[in-house]
Amino acid sequence: MPTDTSPPAGRDKAMLRTERLILRPARQADVATLFGFLGDAEAMKFTHVDSTLRDCRRRVMVHEWRRRHDGCAPWVVTAREEDRIVGWGGLYQDPFEPGWGFEVGYYFHPDVWGRGYASELVGAALRLADRKLVLAEVWAMAHPENPGSRRVLEKQGFRQVRYLPDRTRFLFRRPRDTGGD
Questions:
Q1: Cα(118)–Cα(13) distance, rounded to whole angstroms?
Q2: Any signal peptide, and if so, which residues (predicted)?
Q3: What pLDDT is stored for residue 8 in this prediction?
């Protein structure tokens, strides 16, 4: 599945297009829509849930601030066919829990689960990690009761490293894909 990792002409260089998704930096105006699922305890039962709109705004905007330093942060994910925000995620260093290095994370509205968007997003994030940022490795975490998330990571070349009991998560690692270079 080809991905155009070059920015569209005259647009934000941090925007990417995949076969079915548009990945772009977050704006303040996106936060209320993102909170619709990032603040939903059932939708986020395997990960962090934002308890208030203010908490969500802070998390999203702090990540955006980090984009200038790291060259990456979670993108707002728009389904091209539907022209609506369906997720948030990508490659980042977590400013709220530093020390894990670069990781991928993905959070989607429940009505788009099972469509393969997470795999498409993670693939784009890994191409950024491998080709533009040239990272030696990328990390990810998945809850033991979320086999779909673990499958997404494994399909993208991540291997389980160990279980983290203090986080109730499996830790995954993927070394850089040099693509023969």
A1: 22
A2: none
A3: 37
